[in-house]
Design goal:
This protein is an alpha/beta fold and 313 residues long. Helix content is 23%, strand content 33%. An 8-stranded mixed beta sheet has the order 5-4-3-2-1-18-19-20, with helices on one face. The two termini are 18 Å apart.
Length: 313
């Protein structure tokens, strides 16, 4: 299931109050259209529903909407396989959808790496928004193979988006799928790049876009699969952290230091109905209290159901 998380952030400038709306999807896994590609039956949810929602937001708020994706978009559906390995001349469907929706930035996911270097290099060149991965390092240069961060300017505010990938890639994927790369510790990488965007880029807001779960997962002497919790606790400078990857329950809240946290479960686990129809859920946060939000479930009939929550999961 694709989950779009909307955070409303308010910043006080000398002359005005500026409100930005951050929308994030994660772990889409190729669910672009509300159709089961095997049965041909209509399903619920999909990026098509998210597109309608984001379109409405943009009509209301214009450029004050920032749209982000948190990885694992290249793998999961027959349509992905077709564009990854059969029709290798056309632009990848994942790039086409992201470009059509006008995303501002993406982070790479482990299942994106799984497709192999030829596929993900082509996809990166076809995607018009920055593809982030601060801890995806070229072993020859020692520098990030992907763009480590991007700066998005909105009405005089500089918003830094830093992308990180779970470093547990060697646990699942053979080295021939990621030749010449290594995956740095998330805490060390985050600390390095927060310093850059705060001191050199003079960012007003710093957003983490992490394709990694909250805590634990696979832990070895060399890496931790899910390391968002340690980044939030050990690295100063983030205002918002979006995380994903492990398809567990949606989580929102704040750390003791005030960092806003948002987690999306993804398409893979939150399925409903006899045919696994999927919903797209929107979490619309109160700008004064991040633990108070409205969940909107966008279903196939285009009706919107709402439930009020008063505390973080």
């Amino acid at each position: 299931m694709a989950l779009a998380t909307l955070f409303t952030l308010t910043s006080m400038s000398q002359q005005e109050t500026i409100t930005l709306h951050l929308v994030e999807t994660s772990d889409v896994h190729g669910n672009f259209f509300p159709v089961n590609m095997l049965s041909g039956h209509q399903t619920r949810g999909s990026m098509a529903r998210v597109a309608s929602y984001v379109g409405n937001l943009r009509q209301k708020y214009g450029d004050d909407v920032i749209l982000l994706d948190n990885g694992d978009i290249l793998q999961g559906q027959p349509l992905n396989y077709y564009y990854n390995f059969v029709d290798t001349l056309s632009a990848n469907i994942a790039a086409q959808v992201v470009n059509y929706l006008g995303y501002d930035a993406q982070t790479i996911g482990n299942h994106d790496v799984e497709t192999g270097q030829r596929v993900y290099d082509k996809w990166i060149t076809e995607t018009r928004c920055p593809l982030l991965g601060a801890n995806v390092v070229d072993v020859q240069t020692g520098k990030p193979r992907l763009q480590p961060y991007t700066i998005i300017e909105r009405r005089g505010l500089r918003v830094a988006i830093i992308g990180l990938l779970t470093p547990a890639i060697p646990n699942w994927l053979e080295p021939e799928l990621w030749p010449g790369l290594r995956f740095e510790n998330m805490v060390e990488s985050a600390r390095k790049w927060v310093k850059v965007v705060r001191e050199q880029e003079k960012a007003d807001l710093v957003v983490g876009l992490f394709h990694s779960g909250w805590d634990g997962g696979i832990v070895t002497p060399d890496y931790r699969e899910d390391d968002t919790k340690r980044v939030a606790e050990l690295v100063d400078g983030f205002d918002v952290i979006f995380f994903g990857h492990d398809h567990t329950n949606t989580f929102v809240g704040r750390t003791e230091d005030g960092i806003i946290l948002g987690y999306n479960g993804g398409f893979g686990f939150d399925t409903y109905g006899d045919e696994g129809e999927r919903y797209a859920r929107i979490y619309d946060f109160n700008e004064n209290d991040v633990t108070a939000y409205t969940q909107k479930t966008l279903c196939y009939s285009e009706e919107v159901k709402e439930r009020k929550y008063t505390s973080a999961h």
